[in-house]
Design a protein that fits this description.
It is a single chain. The chain is an all-alpha fold. The chain has one domain. Helix 2 packs antiparallel against helix 5. The two termini are 19 Å apart.
Length: 94
């Protein structure tokens, strides 16, 4: 019976959604090492000024290191991929 439980949990750990979640968590942790969120928040304009926020984030994205840009794009892609899988109608597990 122990083998049955082990196989069940292994399938859950390596399912589609689980692997994408692990990738997203890894990318977010990478971003937290590369970007100082404290400084970003300190330099950010008011949340009510949408045009200033757009200029701030676009300028910040375009003028940062390539590793940060790749991490942001990859995390957005994996996040959208995960979001799509969460709302699919088909069977997501084996």
């Amino acid at each position: 019976m122990g083998r049955v439980y082990m196989i069940f949990f292994m399938k859950k750990l390596y399912g589609r959604i689980a692997v994408k979640t692990y990738a997203l968590v890894g990318l977010v942790l990478l971003q937290s090492e590369l970007v100082s969120l404290k400084n970003v928040i300190a330099n950010m304009p008011a949340l009510t000024d949408v045009s200033a926020l757009y200029r701030f984030y676009s300028y910040a994205f375009l003028n940062t290191q390539i590793a940060v840009q790749v991490a942001i794009i990859a995390s957005l892609a994996v996040g959208l991929w995960l979001f799509r899988d969460l709302f699919r109608k088909e069977k997501l597990y084996y």
